[in-house]
Structures are given as C-alpha cells and as structure tokens.
Amino acid sequence: MEIPRSTNADTRSGDFAAVTEAELHRNSVQHISDVRRALGFFRWMLDDAAARHDYDKLLDIQGFHADFVTGFAQTGWWTRHRKLNRHHLLQADGVPDDVDLIDVLDMIADCVMAGMARTGHVYPLDLPDAVLRAAFNNTVDKLQAQVRTPAEVSP
Prior knowledge:
By secondary structure, the protein is mainly α.
C-alpha cells in the first residue's frame, strides 16, 4: 500500500512550531486513513488464517482419524499437522520461523474454542516470551514490507 509522506504531523519529524491547524488536521485525517489501511491488512491476514485453519483435518480425515483412535500414540498426521498449520505455538516444532501476531490470535481462538466446546474450560496457555516477542517483531516487519511512500519524497 502506498501512503503519502506527512512529516508535519509529528514533533519528531517536522517543525511543529510552524505547522498550521489546517495542516495538522489534513495530516491527522491522512494518518487515520493510513492506520485504517494497516488494520485492513491485518483483517485480511485474519480472514486468511480463518480460511486455512485446520484445513488438513478435512483433507486428510483418514490420517487424522488414524492418529486420533490411538490417543495420539501414533503421530504421523499430528506431526505433519503442526508443521502445516501456523497456530501450534505451544510446541517448538509448530512455531514457524516468521511467526506473527495473527498466528498468536489463531492459537488463542483455537485453544479457547476447543477447550470451551470440549470440556467447558481452557487449559493454561503458556506461550514462551521469546515466541511472543518474535511474533510482535515479525508482525511489524510484515506490515512495514507492505508500506511504500512515493519515491520522490522517500528518505
């Protein structure tokens, strides 16, 4: 997404003493629009995660069932499942290298909905701090990679 530059709406990047009220208003309207676009990007990512969630359970119901009936003593399907789906963040081999906050929200939704539907409660979710920190940083990087400013005014 391309966004125009607006250096006058921030005391760190512009001459705040020289900014007119009209400029501040115009830049604020633009900033609000830019944030809405960024949140739209996140909404798209959430919609994509929702569409893909556990799709392999249905595509490979035989493999899922084969592991399930052993109480997951057999784990061929389960091991593949953790690698195909981005939300199994409580197992080390289920954390993608580019884990993001969408994955975290997908995991929370998965665990809460499964727990409530199956037992009426949610087991403790102990996400390692390093995973959450990586998810935060990767989400910033993913959004930043989507944003461009016009070349003629880019720093």
